Amino acid sequence: VSRQLKEEIRRGFAGLEDPLAALLAMLENSSAWKGKGHSLGYYITTELELWIEEHPAVTQSGIQLKKLQARVLGILSQCPANLLDPLISIYQLHTADRNYLLEHVSHLHLKGDYKEVAVLSIKLKLQPDQDVEKMCTPLLLQDKANVVEDYVREYPELQSKLLQVLDTWCEPGFNIRDITRPYQGLSTYKPEKFNRKTLSKLVFRLLDRFNLDPALCPNAINQRHLKTLNYLFYKRFVEKTMTEENWADHIQNTVGENRCLQGHLVRLLLRHCERRAAARWARHCGVPTDLLPHGLAEELRELHIPERVEEATKTDNYGDSKKKDYYQLPIPRENIHFLQTWEETLQCWEKVLRPGQVVGIDMEWKPSFGMVGKPRVALLQVALKDEVFLLDLLRLLEQAEEEEEKEKLPHFIQMLYSDAAITKLGYGMSGDLSSLVATCSALKDTEKQLQGVVDLLAVDKQVDGQPEHSHEERGVRQPEKGLSLLVQHVLGKPLDKTEQLSNWEKRPLREEQILYAASDAYCLLEIYERLCKDPESFGLSSDLTESLVGKHSKKPRTEKQLNKQEAPSPSGQQCQGSKVERCRGPGAVSPREFSVVCDNMLQGLGRYLRCLGVDVRMLENEDDHRKAAEIARQDGRVILTSGLPYQTLQSQVGEGRCFSVNCSEKAKEQALQVLKHFNVRVSLTDIFSRCQ
């Protein structure tokens, strides 16, 4: 607002006998202020609020104030949100008679102004004296759950009451139409947005949002458990992608001693198993005999149940003969280490926290099947080229707490994720990190400090030519998806996911779980290496570094930050951490003074540069990319590489000693790019000077 307008408004206030009454008269006789945005009425009102603070003598009290309060209440329900607070402050509505305020909002509620009533009640803090069900039901029917959340936000008792009300609507046999019928005349009524599914989601969101005890909502919890049972039976008997031990463990945890769930379990057993098998599982899961149908109870009496439950459900769990259909770990079993003590973990960190390492990282947690709260990471897998470390995270954190050294493990994890010299590979890193923070709050800033990470989920979205999906064997086999599909496409075989839904908090881990966990982390190394060697055959850019490394944590930066950190080189690539002058290379040099080591995907470039007189060494096809760094350090050579290896290699040599070449160009164009970047001048005498 211009200074001139402000001064004019203030002069107007000073000249009025009763500015408060005058403002109301203006608002009552005009409608221009009712629209969205900052109207003239808004500016006058907010300016009066400030002016009153400087001139407290103009405030009213007693009967005169009550009259003004009655008048302002009449227009509050029509006010845009930005006028509510100034008017409440100017007319001191927080000091008004509470019963009078409650009577006023009750009248508005009867008129059907449900949202306006809720907003006004929130501003005047009337919620403790209102009926939470009466206030929130019409809002939910209008798809205004966000207003409901605001309404109960500051009142834990109301949060509990609301959830108990919502849970009664989840009772079996409850007809939702009974609560919607009185409100069907609502102009904004959205019945399609209010059903059992959305109701269940709302209950769980509010439980999580307000950190309330799930025991408040037994019906909603029961419904979720019923869905979990159906899902487990589908995974075991239709898809056939869950082992018997996993299945039995989850079934027992889900059902417990709940008679309703036990009854549902029996019905599912009879639908999916033979009678004898159903009887065995009913006994194994502790189902009371009075819940069993007569025939099943008879079958149970005839059985001689051994201590260990026999394999009763023949589901053709694919055996060793079919393991060949899946990705197999290329390292021996003795190179997989399960770590439960700090001493063991220190040996792991010594190997992992080395500059130039490429590390595959994955995490496992107990499936929650849609229940409240974020999962706790039970296992942290860290894969190196020759071995895999499985960190028993819950045990290690518990041990650290017992020894009052809570910061030790988080410190090392943060060191790993923030070290730009170590390339970290993951798949869907954001979700993993979120669960890691939920497990250990000391890691809450890890995501802000990420450096040198490659999220292969970003690669997955760019990979072309996904293979056809097979639907044979293993029941109704589902198409591979996620990491398993990427493994199948890049390495030829999918991951075996039968252990994915294991109870990862149960100890000891089974051998199958250990192998699954190690494979999930190690396959990231093999995918990365394969994509680095031949990105174009997968439809990817020849230079993946710019788009993938660190992409997970990149945020928009100011022009000043960009100029400071990333100056463009003549080749168009980003030379990180160096100034423009450095990127352009030193003074002109001859090819004989210029020595390089070419990565194995650039052998054509190496031969071309050698013809021009450059001192060139080339990696063989079977050599690891990291060998280039060893040669560069020993001989003082510049590394020429491309794609993802650039990020790994450039951190292992001096600044400006590693260059990323565009693989999509021919050797001649690549050579010109290199010569221009390093200011190498070729003369006629240099050409073929190295030929024998």
From TrEMBL:
Listed InterPro entries: 3'-5'_exonuclease_dom (IPR002562), Exonuclease_MUT-7-like (IPR052408), Mut-7_DEDDy_dom (IPR037432), Mut7-C_RNAse_dom (IPR002782), RNaseH-like_sf (IPR012337), RNaseH_sf (IPR036397)
Recorded GO MF terms: 3'-5' exonuclease activity; nucleic acid binding
BP GO annotations: nucleobase-containing compound metabolic process
Region (Disordered): 547-582
PANTHER family assigned: 3'-5' EXONUCLEASE DOMAIN-CONTAINING PROTEIN, EXONUCLEASE MUT-7 HOMOLOG
Protein name: MUT7 Exonuclease
Keywords from the named record: Exonuclease, Hydrolase, Nuclease
Pfam families: DNA_pol_A_exo1, Mut7-C
CDD domains reported for this sequence: mut-7_like_exo
Domain 3'-5' exonuclease: residue ranges: 336-536
Start-end of Polar residues biased regions: 564-577
